[in-house]
Amino acid sequence: MNPLTAALRERRPQHSLRIVDAHAHAGPYSLFFIPDAGPAAMVRVMDRCGVSHAVLSSHLAIQLDAAAGNAATAAVVDHAPGRFTGYLTVNPWQDPVGEIGKWGDDPRFGGVKLHPDLHVYPLTGPRYAPVWEFAQRTGCPVLTHTYDGSPYNDLPMVEEMAVRYPGAVILAGHAGATPLGFDAAIEVAQRRPGVVLEVCGSYNTGADLARMVREVGPRQVVFGSDFPFIDLRMSLGRVLFSDLSDDARAAVLGGTMTDLLQWRDNARRARSSQVTAP
Asked: How many distinct structural domains can be found in the chain?
C-alpha cells in the first residue's frame, strides 16, 4: 500500500514525504467564524495531517490592512519558522512600493500574494507593476487569486502578465476555481511555462488535479489547501487519492513548491557565478 494512504487509513500522520502547502492563511476572517486560526493550532492540524510546511498570508492582510497584516504574517512565521513561510500581501491601494521595500528582502517572506477580487483592482493594472518588476528581477513567486469570468483576475489576465513578464513565476491560485476555469488554466499553463497551477478550492476533484498534471506536468502544479479557510484534510485527500504516479504526487505535494521557494539561493548562486567567471 502507498505509505501516504496507508498512514491515513491507520489514522496516523505520514512521515514518508515532505508536504508543502502552497496556499494557507492565518488569523480571523470577517465573514465567518474560524474557531482557532492562530499558529499553534495550525501547527497541530499540520502535524495531524503530516504537512511539513505552509506558505501563508494573514486574512487581515488580504482583507483590510496590508501593512498590519504583513506584520501579522511575519509574527506567525516567527512563532514556528521551520513550519511557515509568509506571503507578502500587496494591496494596490495601500502603498505597494512601500510594502515591497519593507518586506521584500525579509527571509520570513517567500512569495507575494495578490487578491484582485477582494481589492477590486485588475491583475493587469499599473498599480501592480512594482510586484511584477520585483518578481521579474528576483524570481520571487507571485500567488494570485484567480476565478473564471472575474473582471479582476480571470485567466486571460494571468496570461497577459506572463507575456509581459516572462521571467516571473505566477501561481494561479485555485487554478481558475471552476470547471470552466480549470480548462482555461490548463491552456494558459501549456502556453506559458512560468504559470503554475495551485489547486485549492471548493469545486475541484482528484480527477481535475490528475488531468492538470497529465496536461501540464507535475512541475507546473502545486498543492494548496486554503486552510484554515478550507479544511486541510479535504484538500490533502484529493491529492493523496488522485490518479498520479508516486513521482508526480511527490512533486505536486511538495517538491515543486520547495524548489520555487529557493529563489533567493538561486539568485545568490547566479551572482556568485558571475563574479567568479573568467
From this structure: 1
